[in-house]
Design goal:
The chain has 94 residues and is mainly alpha-helical. It is built from 3 helices and 4 strands; from the N terminus they run αββαββα. The longest helix has 22 residues. The chain binds zinc ion. The site of zinc ion has 8 residues, from loops. This is Secreted protein.
């Protein structure tokens, strides 16, 4: 087996694996909130000083994640491409 054939087989295997993953589990954890669905509001002072934890333990203020609208899930890119192509085909052939 040549190097090119091995590379092609590897690429096909990875693509089919990702397609299977998108079929089995179309949603993944949101990258902005790590799947929790809520975030701490952005603080410029905290970002500049680089202190993640406040000194005094205060009640934590959390807001709904804007990226996933509080669901904690995002649609995988492969599933989004699949949904868009299905919608395009449906709209073109009706
Ligand atoms: Zn989120």
């Amino acid at each position: 087996m040549t190097l090119a054939a091995t590379a092609i087989a590897l690429i096909v295997a990875v693509t089919l694996g990702y397609a299977f993953l998108c079929w089995v589990s179309p949603f993944a954890a949101c990258r902005a909130c790590d799947g929790t669905g809520n975030r701490e509001p952005f603080s410029l002072l905290r970002a500049l000083l680089g202190r993640p934890e406040p000194r005094r333990k205060r009640r934590r203020i959390r807001t709904k994640c804007r990226r996933c609208r509080g669901t904690g899930a995002r649609l995988r890119i492969g599933r989004r491409i699949h949904n868009n192509s299905r919608r395009l085909r449906h709209d073109a052939t009706r």
